[in-house]
Write a structure and sequence with these properties.
Blueprint: H1 3-11, H2 17-28, E1 34-37, E2 40-42, H3 51-63, E3 67-70, E4 82-86, E5 89-98, H4 105-111, E6 117-122, H5 128-141, E7 147-152, E8 155-160, H6 161-164, H7 169-177
Helix pairs in contact: 5-7
């Protein structure tokens, strides 16, 4: 892989606003990305430890209308797993695949070191009340967190700070997530 791509990804940490979004578009347009499946592009392959989990989540994202770019992890730099693009808007997401019943709280907090947007790919039954509480806690304790995207069964939930901190979010989330 080209060192130039690693540098572009590492430099995302220093950018804000329009410069950040422009850099995401530049990264996604790099020739190193090869089409893996329809609307999924990658610079990594099956030899990468988390590739299968990333590909599983990417396939789900495509079902919800995203074009997905699987990112490498540049050496010595914490970076996100994906660029999602839909309707010309680029977003950077860190993936956390949830397979057990333990609290996702630590997983959420760990993800925020890599991106201010988090994708929770829920591959297990999980208590919706506990999950809603962890999401609220995430937004209350991390001002930089912008979005938590959840893939659960055949549903996608995009939760923003404004939504999560509204009165009654927990009850609404439980009803939606439990369907």
């Amino acid at each position: 892989m080209d060192d130039g791509l690693d540098i572009l990804i590492a430099n995302l940490r220093n950018l804000k606003g329009a410069a950040f979004w422009q850099q995401l578009a530049v990264i996604a347009s790099r020739p190193e990305f090869k089409q893996v499946e329809e609307s999924i592009y990658s610079v990594i392959g099956p030899e990468t430890p988390d590739y299968d989990r990333q590909l599983d989540a990417a396939r789900k994202a495509v079902l919800f209308g995203y074009t997905v770019y699987l990112l490498p992890n540049p050496k010595a730099v914490k970076s996100a797993d994906f660029i999602f693009q839909r309707k010309g808007v680029y977003k950077l997401f860190e993936l956390k695949t949830i397979t057990g019943q333990n609290s996702v709280g630590n997983r959420i907090m760990d993800a925020l070191d890599q991106s201010n947007r988090l994708l929770l790919n829920m591959c297990t039954k999980y208590n919706p009340r506990k999950l809603g509480q962890e999401i609220i806690k995430c937004f209350k304790s991390h001002d930089e967190c912008r979005e938590v995207l959840i893939f659960h069964n055949k549903q996608a939930f995009s939760i923003t700070r404004q939504t999560a901190l509204q009165k009654g979010f927990g009850a609404r989330f439980c009803r939606l997530y439990g369907k």
